[in-house]
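Lab notebook page, bench 4
Experiment: in silico fold of construct C2
Operator: M.H.
Input chain length: 244 residues
Purpose: comparison with the prior construct
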Amino acid sequence: MKETKSPTISKYLFRHNQCLVCGQPLIYKKTPTVVSCYHCGIQNKTQTLCQEGHYVCDECARRDVYEIIISQCNKYSGLNAIELAESIMDLSKIKIHGPEHHLLVPAVMLAIWCNAKNISKEIKSELLNEARNRALKIQDGICATHGACGGSIGVGIFFSLILQVNELDKENYGYINRATANTLANIAKYGGPRCCKRSTYLAILQTRNQLVEDFGLNLPIPNKIQCQYVEKNLECTKSECLFY
């Protein structure tokens, strides 16, 4: 007898884990398949397809949403990183999981850094655009395929940009790698399945705390962070999560 899918779950998947082409639920396969991007035709290996076989490459999938993140960070004038991050994550274009979080972490923290240091709008925009260029190189699903959460790498992107680090830097090379490593350790502590919202909160808190302790910036955070995205996440670990 053919198994009948729950209509509630199907509707839920359509809203929050849907194909960018047809809106059908996404399927996560154990082994990668070579497919062509629906929009640009580039061929890639992927483990994520929809029920109709559609695939959208990272760059095409991120183009519009990255512009939204950059725009929101350019406009924000406050110092509360959680407030800014949640205002972006609340937008309909931001999926519950996805590579938009790879940019979200460094972009939010760059906006906060520039506002706190009274850095010009022109330089702020340049830093955000460079963060976007670097985040585009972090592939979707990298947390599972490479063992390094894209949000954690975003922490490294942020510190690399504000400290102007290159491969030969003696003073700050270790610092930015420790920042990434410390974030990864916190994310690893909570295990799987992945949650991009949980990882984003942890990455932003790690960065904010380092800016307070190491750079002397007085940056506010809410007394309690309570995730508002629980009902949108089918794999939420609920009480096992710090932000539940």
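Observations: The CA atoms of residues 209 and 219 lie 8 Å apart. The first helix runs from residue 7 to 16.
Next step: discuss at group meeting.
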